[in-house]
Write a sequence for this structure.
């Protein structure tokens, strides 16, 4: 018997459940598609494009809908000789200034053997280079800036590009900017002139409800899974679970994919509801693990201090117990400790991430309120995560528990 045999019961084409798969149809987003089409109509007419700003939480289809509609737009404009449309995408994660966005745009527009250095130019020079490149491409150019909120308050470029034509910097090209963001605060933080320009057309992507998610999952499952691979209620359970939690299609698809993997690993011929529950727990766990790894240095220190108390069976515990431990661990790790109140903010963050449970308690007659903390996740999970903290010198009790687990 072979060690590996091809799946014949659960996954027909599992790549279709992966993050980077681009669906060829969009379900449950009619109103958004209508608004987006209206915003893009000037492009088909050969007119100056409008700038569009898309916002909504993570996983609600901003990228998928944009890719789908811009592909359609490119195909449909080919029918008109007087429209020459080019679309360029730039992911702005880690680009925290107009300068960096401009340099990366220049390099996106240029060929790979003709890139410019990411530092060393005056800002105006980079903008001029960008205008030259845009004019060289010519026609209508749509620049899609994904995760645009990373640019922060240094947002001049979002004003400059759309205005460059009327300001006489561009002659042969009609540029349009499509900004995408899942940070609701970003729109408010834009300077008024940028807001007026970039947010000419705004499209809000609301979280999906269970009915919409079910439609998305059904369409995807039709091709990704074999016909009898889902037991009754499985798809609606994935949809309902994700709708109640985040309303994200990504979460719903991840749940179905994970549940399928669990069924396959168990040699089952179909996915059961119990696989969805198990998948939810596994995904939650890995999200929490990731949350712990991505904490700041002081978040790591506060976590280790609380873990030390938990291992000594001193939890639930109060800030006044955690703080001295935190301070000692910080000193051993060559970090200046924060004052108690600031460290308490980090404990509150850990509670918000679902790592700690926090309960308010009253101090009896003397009045006053205090909080008690304890882990709301399995300690083994925390010990595993802490093992990877490179910036913290671990106290002996914690180091010992790690060794015991790794043995
Ligand atoms: N309406 C839809 N129809 C079909 N698939 C969808 C739909 N909406 C989202 N998806 C799928 O859900 C996943 C997440 O969607 P997408 O990446 O577009 O979200 P997003 O809003 O851009 O999220 P982020 O802000 O995190 O980038 C993708 O796999 C996408 O194909």
């Amino acid at each position: 018997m072979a060690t590996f045999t091809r799946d014949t019961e659960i996954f027909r084409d599992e790549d279709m459940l992966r993050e980077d798969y681009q669906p060829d149809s969009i379900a449950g987003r009619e109103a958004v598609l209508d608004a987006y089409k209206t915003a893009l109509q000037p492009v088909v007419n050969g007119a100056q494009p409008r700038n569009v700003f898309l916002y909504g939480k993570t996983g609600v289809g901003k990228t998928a809908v944009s890719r789908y509609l811009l592909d359609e737009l490119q195909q449909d404009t080919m029918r008109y000789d007087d429209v020459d449309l080019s679309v360029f995408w730039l992911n702005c994660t880690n680009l925290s200034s107009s300068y960096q966005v401009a340099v990366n745009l220049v390099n996106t527009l240029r060929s790979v053997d003709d890139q410019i250095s990411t530092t060393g130019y005056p800002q105006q020079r980079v903008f001029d280079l960008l205008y030259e490149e845009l004019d060289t491409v010519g026609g209508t150019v749509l620049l899609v800036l994904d995760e645009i909120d990373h640019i922060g308050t240094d947002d001049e470029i979002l004003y400059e590009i759309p205005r460059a034509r009327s300001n006489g910097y561009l002659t042969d090209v009609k540029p349009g900017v499509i900004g995408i963001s899942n940070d609701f605060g970003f729109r408010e933080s834009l300077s008024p002139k940028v807001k007026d320009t970039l947010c000419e057309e705004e499209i809000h992507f609301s979280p999906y409800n269970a009915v919409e998610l079910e439609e998305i999952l059904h369409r995807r499952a039709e091709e990704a899974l074999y016909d009898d691979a889902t037991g009754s209620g499985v798809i609606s359970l994935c949809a309902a679970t994700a709708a109640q939690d985040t309303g994200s299609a990504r979460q719903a698809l991840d749940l179905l994919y994970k549940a399928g993997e669990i069924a396959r690993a168990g040699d089952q011929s179909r996915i059961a509801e119990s696989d969805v529950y198990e998948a939810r727990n596994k995904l939650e766990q890995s999200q929490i693990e990731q949350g712990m790894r991505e904490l700041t240095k002081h978040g790591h220190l506060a976590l280790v201090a609380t873990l030390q108390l938990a291992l000594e069976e001193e939890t639930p515990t109060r800030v006044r117990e955690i703080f001295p431990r935190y301070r000692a661990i910080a000193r051993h790790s060559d970090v200046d400790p924060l004052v108690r109140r600031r460290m308490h903010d980090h404990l509150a963050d850990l509670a918000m991430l679902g790592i700690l449970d926090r309960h308010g308690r009253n101090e009896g007659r003397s009045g006053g309120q205090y909080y008690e903390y304890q882990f709301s996740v399995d300690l083994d999970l925390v010990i595993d995560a802490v093992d990877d903290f490179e910036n913290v010198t671990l106290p002996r009790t914690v180091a010992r528990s790690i060794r015991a687990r790794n043995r």
